[in-house]
Amino acid sequence: MYEFNYHRPASLAEAASLLSGAADGKLLAGGQTLLPTLKQRLASPSDLIDLTGIAELSGITVSADSVSIGAATRHAAVAASAEVKQAIPALAHLASGIGDPQVRNMGTIGGSVANHDPAADYPAAVLGLNATIHTNKRTIAADEFFTGLFETALDEGEIIVKIVFPVPKRAGYVKFPNPASRYVMVGAFVAETAGGIRVAINGAGPGVFRHAAMEAALAGNFSPDALNGVKTDAKAMNNDIHASADYRAHLVGVIAKRAVQAALG
């Protein structure tokens, strides 16, 4: 690990000021990706700005039509929230399956979404539920947020404050995890929202994406059988030591059917 300046601001405004004034500042929330990267000397920021002391970035607020989660809220808190379980059971279920207990008690929703690892869980919920990402500068719709592998629409110096999830009519999330790392090899978040059916696939490709063909099929018949014959382009899938592109394309169909069944209860 290289030398850096460590800061623990008490407010969002102070964090933004520190970030803008640093030569190469990085934000630290749960640190589940950043800290291993620093330990391996794959990054050498000039400043590390710890967000965990900022009260306004943590907490869960549930209303009749939305669930708002602060960016620094731990996965374990979302998984254990009775209000989230009542409003969006699929979201609490997703959080309960992230990594292991150590990861869930350190990792944060804001860090996961900002990092946009294709094998992460939360991006599927954000896209599948058509959530809105609130930053210290603006709001960003889910469909505009994830732009590529480890890339998002966040500007330099922009900090996620909270993520607001509309409460769907029903939703389900199922993933096929890597047995060693527990990262998602293929996952599907299926939701019937006020704006229609949304199907978000994670783990399979270089980023989370919506499956238009599945959405169209489910719009006419919200059942696993509606996905019979719906194909996924293997050319757009990841191909690595864990699974071939063809296998991942096949898994998308299998896992999506299970997610629909989960939504149906």
Task: Write a brief caption for the model.
With 265 residues, the protein is α+β, with helices and mostly antiparallel strands. It has helices spanning 12-21, 34-39, 75-80, 82-87, 89-96, 101-104, 109-115, 122-128, 142-145, 212-220, 245-264; strands at 5-7, 25-28, 47-50, 60-62, 66-70, 132-135, 139-141, 146-148, 151-152, 160-166, 170-177, 184-193, 196-202, 209-210. 33% of the residues lie in helices and 25% in strands.
Please name the CATH topology of the largest domain. Answer: Uridine Diphospho-n-acetylenolpyruvylglucosamine Reductase, domain 3
**End-to-end Cα distance:** 47 Å
Helical content class = 25-40%
Indicate the proportion of strand residues: 15-25%
Quickly count the helices: 11
Question: What count of domains describes the coordinates?
Answer: 2
Spell the H/E element sequence: EHEHEEEHHHHHHEEHEEEEEEEHH
Mean pLDDT: 95
Strand order of the largest sheet: 4-5-10-6-7
Largest sheet: 5 strands, antiparallel
- Label the overall shape: globular
Q: What are the main properties of this structure?
A:
alpha+beta; Uridine Diphospho-n-acetylenolpyruvylglucosamine Reductase, domain 2; Uridine Diphospho-n-acetylenolpyruvylglucosamine Reductase, domain 3; four-stranded antiparallel beta sheet; 11 helices; 25% strand; globular
Give a written overview of the molecule.
The chain has 265 residues and is of the alpha+beta class. The chain has two domains: 5-50, Uridine Diphospho-n-acetylenolpyruvylglucosamine Reductase, domain 2 (2-Layer Sandwich), CATH 3.30.43; 58-264, 2-Layer Sandwich (Uridine Diphospho-n-acetylenolpyruvylglucosamine Reductase, domain 3). The protein is built from eleven helices and 14 strands. The chain has helices spanning 12-21, 34-39, 75-80, 82-87, 89-96, 101-104, 109-115, 122-128, 142-145, 212-220, 245-264; strands spanning 5-7, 25-28, 47-50, 60-62, 66-70, 132-135, 139-141, 146-148, 151-152, 160-166, 170-177, 184-193, 196-202, 209-210. The strands form four sheets. Strands 4-5-10-6-7 form a five-stranded antiparallel β-sheet. A four-stranded antiparallel β-sheet has the order 11-12-13-14, sandwiched between helices. The radius of gyration is 18 Å and the shape is globular. The mean pLDDT is 95.
